[in-house]
Amino acid sequence: MNDGLTMPVVVGAVVGLGVYVLVRALMPTKRSALSQVARIDAMRARGTAYESARPTDQGSSGRFASLRAQVGERVADFYRQQGWEQRSLRADLAVLERSWEKFLATKVLLAVAGLFFGPFLFAIVWQLGFGSSPVIPVWLALLCAVLFFVLPDLEVRRDAAEKRRDLRRVIGAYLDLVSMSLAGGRGLPEALMAAAEVSDGWATQRIRNALADARITGVSQWQALGQLGEELGVEELKDLSASLALVADDGAKVRESLASRAETMRHRELAEIEGSAGEKSQSMLVAQLLLCAGFLVFLIFPAAMRVFQV
């Protein structure tokens, strides 16, 4: 095939494939029974798991908000039809108290913006005289779209990791409070709720809401803590639920288990703090060495230039 025809054919094939994938993603298809059940569960979770995020969502209005909601629902339906659960990402969003549908809408809208940003960047570079191939804007558009589509995932994972560290610190203190309440003569359900009512922070509020929902639904409180750990992706809460289920009838064993678990979490936190402090000290040492090397080059360079000129 002639080289002059190869490039338009490749560009047309890439654009046609992108249009086909977009149409298939947005076209409503026949839902199976499994996807219908998943849709109902998602609608129920939308009203419970993100209850605290609703006051911030009500302030957004207008065409962009409605477009974002429609795109989010369509993309969420597509994910359910394909069986893409994304459990770790959903757990990160649950920790941050963000909506799954709005997160997907943000990813898609950013990807669309990347499709326009790539050719715009090429136009600037072409004006400077650094490119003339017609395939460059296509690859730039695809590259920017993929990059913009992935950026929200990185942001969510970073923020969720920081918030989980705060949650683990709160859990360690919470276990100490529960152990002291048990030593004071309270039962396990009362001690769990009393320890959660000490503070109004977001972590204790999530624990308190989970315990309150357990009373309404008739689930044991340690099972509610395990479900909260499953939702937030926190292994400490799931381990706590399993250990409490084994020794829930023996108050002395419960106190010993909680005290040992809180001590283990404190030691782990101290080890993480020491490790991060060591990393920061190493980075400071490297920065000081680079500064000293630059200062030595600044001192030696004039003398070296004189020697080489001679």
From TrEMBL:
Transmembrane segments: 6-26, 108-129, 135-154, 285-305
Native organism: Streptomyces thermodiastaticus
Keyword annotations from UniProtKB, A to Z: Cell membrane, Membrane, Transmembrane, Transmembrane helix
Keyword Transferase belongs to the record: no
Protein name from the UniProt record: Flp pilus assembly protein TadB
InterPro entries xrefs: T2SS_GspF_dom
Compartments, as annotated in UniProt: Cell membrane
Protein's membrane topology: Multi-pass membrane protein
Domain Type II secretion system protein GspF, residue spans: 175-301
